[in-house]
Amino acid sequence: MDAREMKIKAAQAALDYVEDGMRLGIGTGSTAEEFVRLLAEKVASGFRIEGVPTSERTARLCVELGVPLKSLEELPELDLTIDGADEVDPMLRLIKGGGGALLREKIVACASARMIVIADETKVVDTLGAFKLPIEVNVFGLAATRIAVEKLAARHGLSGEIAVRTSGDGPFMTDGGHLILDASFGRIPDADALACELNAIPGVVEHGLFIGIASLAIIAGPAGARVMTV
Ligand SMILES: O=C[C@H](O)[C@H](O)[C@H](O)COP(=O)(O)O
């Protein structure tokens, strides 16, 4: 089974948790897009959901495939969010934001009664941090914010490059008009504390550590999909 087939397997299993009439947060990324494709087939066969997309990219795909959308302003309380992840640890702590959508993803997931992660087994780790941690920052004060993040990282015994994400010739801009710092920390021993302390830096808009948000993960491997819970 190749990587795409595993993503489809996880997305298929996630459909079992989606009920007719649900208000649904819809994630971003290649795994979430497989979910959108399968969801669109169900919608075409008469299944009713109202979706809130976590990015402009997801919104475009939903529109293209006929998945009905509302904004989070129209539907500020959701039943369920289904989204991918860059890393998942055994406590269902996540790193997200590889696609730059972490801020909207976190807002939508936290507005949902439940968040389910869909991923292939390569995303499962014992300790978060092999994937670069995306940190969304305000354009104003970039240098000062980066220094504050470096100092915080040092207090946690973390080092490694903290680079401004680029896209084409310039910096990558998020849907919210912010920049992303990708922090190559390596293994993060205390992700819970780091998450809280990153939020205390004024220029940090949000970060890709999702702690205590997901309650179930569907992990697909060559043998099929399995469920992880906390
Ligand atoms: O910003 C992007 C998101 O957090 C994605 O859900 C995450 O990067 C996983 O994406 P993929 O399913 O493409 O690996």
Cα Rg? 17 Å
CATH architecture of the largest domain: 3-Layer(aba) Sandwich
**CATH top level of the largest domain?**
Alpha Beta
How many domains would you count in the coordinates? Answer: 2
Bulk shape: globular
Which distinct ligands sit in these coordinates? ribose-5-phosphate
**Please, how many helices?**
6
The major β-sheet equals: 6 strands, mixed
Helices and strands, in N-to-C order?
HEHEHEEEHEEHEEEEHEEEE
Give the overall pLDDT as a whole number.
97
Subunit structure: Homodimer.
Function: Catalyzes the reversible conversion of ribose-5-phosphate to ribulose 5-phosphate.
EC number: 5.3.1.6
Keywords: Isomerase
What would your notes on this structure say?
The protein has 230 residues and is an alpha/beta fold. It has 2 domains: 3-124 and 211-222, Rossmann fold (3-Layer(aba) Sandwich); 133-203, ACT domain (Alpha-Beta Plaits, 2-Layer Sandwich). The chain is 30% helix and 25% strand. It has helices at residues 3-15, 30-44, 56-65, 102-110, 142-155, 191-199; strands at residues 23-26, 50-53, 80-83, 87-88, 94-95, 115-120, 133-137, 162-164, 166-167, 170-171, 179-183, 204-207, 209-210, 216-221, 224-229. The strands form 4 sheets. The chain has a 6-stranded mixed beta sheet with strand order 2-1-3-6-14-15, sandwiched between helices. Strands 8-11-7-12 form a 4-stranded antiparallel beta sheet, covered by helices on one side. A hairpin with a 5-residue loop joins β4 (87-88) and β5. The structure holds ribose-5-phosphate. Ribose-5-phosphate (R5P) binds next to α2 and α4.
